Each structure stands twice: as structure tokens, then as C-alpha cells.
Amino acid sequence: ADIISTVEFNYSGELLATGDKGGRVVIFQREQESKNRPHSRGEYNVYSTFQSHEPEFDYLKSLEIEEKINKIRWLPQQNAAHSLLSTNDKTIKLWKISQRDKRAEGYNLKDEDGRLRDPFRVTSLRVPVLLPMDLMVEASPRRIFANAHTYHINSISVNSDHETYLSADDLRVNLWHLEITDRSFNIVDIKPANMEELTEVITAAECHPHQCNVFVYSSSKGTIRLCDMRAAALCDRQSKFFEEPEDPSSRSFFSEIISSISDVKFSHSGRYMMTRDYLSVKVWDLNMENRPVETYQVHEYLRSKLCSLYENDCIFDKFECCWNGSDSAIMTGSYNNFFRMFDRNTRRDITLEASRENSKPRAILKARKVSTGGKRKKDEISVDSLDFNKKILHTAWHPKENVIAVAATNNLYIFQDKIN
Question: Is 14 exposed, middle or buried (0-12, 13-18, 19+ CB in 10 A)?
């Protein structure tokens, strides 16, 4: 139940939310820097924990609905409280997280223990006062958006107008207004009239960071469609279609499975988007549809192991990817608790490991290398000894600083730039 299923920084990076398979949301808050502890600035401590979703049962279809949190998305902060959207397979909830550190005391019509007083016995008028109290953080559900998805929700994305958001399942994308829970607009529907003709499913969807009419969705066939909501109410015909032609020489039995896109993310600038398939990360320029401008191999050494990865179902793992705040670097996960970072300017890349053994506070992470056969150097790890049960599917990068959050099964690791 405590396996982490999503990780997300808020817009300022001061809060970090994680969701898990047990339906819980845990929010971490960054410590303010203090004079007596100058290096404590990067530390995140638990701020609030609440149960977002409960297991349910669909009696019409005789299906259990898992409580697992599939995605969390923060809303821009409008007032002192914070808001986030969390979703399981079927239901999206809008949560408000607020804090209280003062309480009112000195009521006229009720006693200190809360009992109502007889109005005839009130002889003097008291002015209530605010007294300090221990900090209380409350999470309350403000809206519940239900009954709009027949299939499992894989993505939610808040629009740049901050009034609407989209949710996507295997065959449809819906557009919601944050204030309206009883209806949504269906903007993409790829369900064929005959389900036997089904050839692809939607794997991820995201709104453009600046243009509220533009969104993209990716498919299990390795294609990405960019749609403009101004063109038509139902965006069945995409405005742009991104697909890389397949190299016939490298075609194999697994080609279709490993080309399925597990995540798509717009850059903060809105000029590029990044897609993650099983073996690689690709960066696309929105103005060029026929091929990506950059391709980074995440774990090319697994190409020879696809047969055993197919047998143990790892080939269907859905890895996410993320940009740093300035779009100059990207990060994604791999197996053996490894995660990969690529610098887009220098084309350098590094493999790091998130594990209990090498993550003592303030310790510097050492680069890891995987040997693919032949003679193994001293500090390299052999491809055959990688642990495929230890996988990093979910990562997040602070929007302004070099602070990253990496979810390794049921552990959350937070790393930051070396402090000199």
C-alpha cells in the first residue's frame, strides 16, 4: 500500500506531494533556512497526510476500483490555502490544504467547551480574541469529479487558463471546468464502433503551458497528436501528428511494445515536448513533426534482454520523464534504482542510483556504469545482475532549483546540487 505511484512539486517548489497505492497523499514542505542551521534549506519534512481515495466496487460491472493514486496535479495558489487534484482510476478530487495556527476564544453565546449559553444570562458583551495554537493542517475535499470515465484514467493536466483541466483514459479525453462537477466535455474519442478493431490506446495527455486551446496526447503506437480546441469541438482530427519513421533493420517482435509512449511533457517554454518510450527519451520541436530533434538512450543495454523482460512483464512498465526549470536538462528512471539525467547543451549524461546504501545525508552520489559484456571494470555493474524489481518510474524536478525527487518503490529520495 505504501508504494509511491506519483510525485509532484507545486508551482513554487516549496511543497512536494506524493500519492501511493493505498490512496494516501503525503505532502512535504521545505524547511526555511535558519541562522543556526545554514544547510537545512533543502530539507523537506512531512506537512500533511490524508486519505484521498478509498477502494470502491462497481456493482454494474462487478469490478473493484483500486484506491491507488494515479496522478497528482497542483493548482496555482490563489490565496493562503493550497489546492491539488488527485485521481485514481475513475474519480478525480479537488483538495484544499489549509493551515490554522490561531483559535478564537471569548464567545458571547457559547461556553469555552462549546455548549450554548442561555441568551438571557448574557449580561456583558465580550470581544472574542485570537489566541495562538499548535499548527493544524487540514485537507478538505472541495469537489469530486466522478462518473465521466469508462476506462482507467492515466492523466490529468491543469490548463494554463487555471479554470479548466483535462483528464484522459485509454480511449477518451475529457475537458472539465474546476467549478463544475456534474458534466465534462468529451474532446477526444478514439473508441472504434467495433472494439475488435481497436489498434491503439491513449497513454498520456497534457495541456500546453501557455496556450489554453492546445493539448497533446500520446498513443501506444508511439505517435503523438497535437490538437487545437479552436478547430472543432471534438478534436478527432489532430492539428499536428508526430511520428518517427521506424528503421526496418531494427524491427523485431517487441518493436510495437517498446515504441509505446509512457509519458509526454511540454517544456516550460512551450516550444518543445518530451516523450518517453521503453528504451529512450525523445525531444520534439513542435514545429517539426517528422522526427525528434534529440534522442537519448536510457538503457540501450536492455535491448538484448527484451525477451526475459517480456516474460516478467517489465516491458510494460510505464516510466515518466521530467524537465528541469530552465529546460536545459531532462531526467527519467530506469531499473536497479538507477535514474538517468541528460544535459541538452553539452549532450553529457549520467546514471545515478537512489538507494539506502549510498544515500547518507550530504553524501555525494557517484556515477554508475553498466557493462554490457566482455571485461567488466571494477566499478561497473553487469547487465545480468540488475534488479528489475527495483525500478524508478516516478521523478520530479523542482521548478526553479536543482532539487529532484525520486520515488524508488516505497522510498522517496530528495537530492540537491552539491553545496560548496
Answer: middle
